[in-house]
């Protein structure tokens, strides 16, 4: 049997300067590391019993695949870069499935005309990291691209040292970014910008009634996403506009990490020297990113003052929109179903307590369910206020248990999975993936994965690894 993907490509039919058609590079020896059979099933993909490694290494192209590298630009750490594009990724094609349209993309499949000085490759570490974290995010209930497969290429990739090459197969609602709009807007290519807008609106927000409504949908999706990140202690690390998806998915997992000890200003990424993308700064950066999207849409609305004012209003109200989502989500984390601004003090009091006692973010919210007396012993005032506020809640403990994960992909466990894989032991990688399928449940088999790192294990810096 040949591989059967229900390909139905539409991006490939857009004007030819939206992309370059490009075939994946040959690899030395493809080896399957992971294959997500549940996701394949959801995507209605039918695969032969053998040879998957050749398909997911891009060596055998399934019928209907039409690989291309997409053009985009973007603000990187606040500075505009007019030419980014897929430098090490290729869109194989789109699947039209019962649950919607999805891009299938290979990441690490060789150079493209956008590679600049890069080699177009990925080494094993970032591939395993993205596989683990994107799937974990999905199971945590957070909008994200997903991982269908990871393969080793048998090639050597030169970074600081020589490392084994790998390719990730990524699944996304689309790979259209804020930076895709910026690319055409900054080139003054209004016709292309309008084409992109019509295409994207139809693909993601078909029922949006106007361009303002379109912008507001993207903003709503991003506000929801970023407050979800905050609620589980996720730090994306590179919230550049080229890493900001119009569909509102978490995309481009690079030096991302999760909070261990709670700190609002926590930064992991080695290149984020000024903390632009620090944990709590993410709520501000998304406003900036959406303002860049609004800017990029302006040439379409020309000088229509009314629309301009509507755009402005949408951006201006983002901080309060984010605050109220944050309040709602963090309220639930301490057992309050309908929090109001009056609960801000209680929520902040909890977080400030964690910061001052140097306590773990994820574990502490679970501790409030499992051993609430602990908080009485360390901060009786806070505890009494919390007990009285939650006393008229019907079931605060179930509310807390439904939103406070027991397991997150902890940085040190990801590092352990990667370093083991470099020694040809993929067991920790597979075990982590299995455990993270049910992050809200307690499973004694995986209790070691709940633990915060020891001082020696703690990951203090993460790297792009590209
Ligand atoms: P990222 O850090 O993944 O958001 O990538 C930023 C830009 O650099 C994108 O245009 C990527 O395609 C490009 N890039 C990253 N790594 C490589 C690589 N190894 N080879 C070529 N281009 C790359
Ligand atoms: Mg990127």
Largest sheet, in brief, is: 6 strands, antiparallel
Q: Please work out how many helical segments DSSP would assign.
A: 16
What proportion strand? 5-15%
Name the helix and strand elements from N-terminus to C-terminus, one letter apiece.
EEHHEEEEEEHEEHHHEEHHHHHHHHHH
Mean pLDDT equals 97
Which residues sit in consecutive blocks of at least 5 with pLDDT less than 50?
none
Tally of discrete structural domains: 2
Structural class designation: alpha+beta
Principal-axes shape call: globular
Number of strands: 12
Q: Whole-Å distance between the termini?
A: 36 Å
| Rg, alpha carbons | 22 Å
Helix content: 40-55%
Ions, cofactors and other bound molecules: adenosine monophosphate, magnesium ion
What is the secondary structure topology, with strand pairs?
Blueprint: E1 19-21, E2 31-35, H1 37-42, H2 52-56, E3 68-70, E4 74-76, E5 79-81, E6 89-97, E7 100-107, E8 122-123, H3 124-140, E9 146-158, E10 162-172, H4 178-186, H5 190-204, H6 211-232, E11 234-235, E12 257-258, H7 282-301, H8 305-316, H9 318-333, H10 344-357, H11 361-370, H12 373-378, H13 380-390, H14 396-403, H15 411-422, H16 427-435
Antiparallel strand pairs: 1-3, 2-9, 4-5, 6-7, 7-10, 8-10, 9-10, 11-12
Helix pairs in contact: 3-15, 4-5, 4-7, 6-7, 6-8, 6-9, 7-8, 15-16
The protein binds adenosine monophosphate and magnesium ion (MG).
């Amino acid at each position: 049997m040949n591989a059967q993907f229900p390909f139905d490509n539409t991006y490939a039919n857009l004007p030819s300067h939206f992309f370059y058609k490009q075939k994946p590079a040959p690899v030395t020896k493809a080896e399957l590391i992971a294959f997500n059979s549940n996701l394949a099933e959801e995507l209605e993909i039918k695969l032969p019993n053998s040879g998957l490694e050749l398909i997911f290494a891009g060596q055998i192209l399934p019928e209907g695949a039409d690989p291309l590298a997409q053009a985009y630009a973007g603000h990187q750490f606040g500075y505009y870069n007019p030419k980014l594009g897929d430098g090490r990724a290729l869109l194989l094609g789109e699947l039209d499935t019962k649950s919607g349209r999805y891009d299938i993309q290979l990441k690490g499949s060789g150079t493209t005309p956008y590679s600049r000085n890069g080699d177009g490759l990925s080494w094993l570490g970032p591939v395993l990291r993205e596989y683990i974290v994107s799937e974990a995010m999905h199971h945590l209930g957070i909008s994200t691209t997903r991982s269908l497969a990871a393969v080793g290429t048998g090639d050597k990739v030169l970074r600081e040292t020589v490392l084994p090459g790998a390719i990730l197969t990524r699944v996304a609602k689309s790979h259209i970014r804020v930076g895709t709009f910026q690319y055409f807007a900054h080139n003054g290519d209004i016709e292309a910008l309008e084409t992109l807008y019509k295409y994207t609106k139809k693909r993601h927000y078909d029922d949006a009634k106007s361009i303002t409504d379109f912008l507001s949908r993207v903003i709503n999706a991003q506000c929801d996403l970023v407050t979800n990140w905050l609620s589980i202690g996720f730090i994306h690390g590179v919230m550049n506009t080229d890493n900001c998806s119009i569909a509102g998915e978490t995309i481009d997992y690079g030096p991302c990490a999760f909070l261990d000890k709670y700190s609002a200003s926590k930064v992991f990424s080695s290149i984020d020297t000024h903390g632009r993308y620090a944990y709590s700064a993410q709520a501000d950066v998304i406003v900036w990113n959406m303002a860049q999207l609004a800017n990029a849409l302006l040439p379409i609305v020309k000088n229509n003052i009314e629309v301009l004012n509507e755009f402005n209003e949408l951006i201006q109200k983002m901080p309060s929109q984010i605050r109220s989502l944050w309040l709602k989500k963090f309220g639930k984390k301490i057992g309050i179903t309908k929090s109001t601004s009056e609960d801000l003090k209680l929520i902040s009091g909890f977080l400030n307590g964690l910061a001052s006692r140097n306590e773990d973010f994820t574990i502490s919210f679970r501790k409030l369910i499992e051993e609430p007396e602990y908080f009485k012993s360390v901060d009786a005032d806070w505890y009494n206020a919390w007990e009285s506020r939650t006393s008229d809640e019907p079931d605060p403990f179930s509310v807390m248990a439904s939103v406070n994960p027991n397991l997150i992909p902890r940085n040190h466990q990801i590092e352990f999975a990667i370093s083991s894989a470099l020694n040809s032991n993929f067991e920790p990688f597979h075990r982590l993936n299995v455990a993270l399928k049910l992050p809200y449940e307690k499973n004694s088999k995986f209790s070691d994965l709940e633990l915060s790192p020891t001082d020696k294990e703690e990951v203090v810096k993460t790297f792009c690894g590209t």
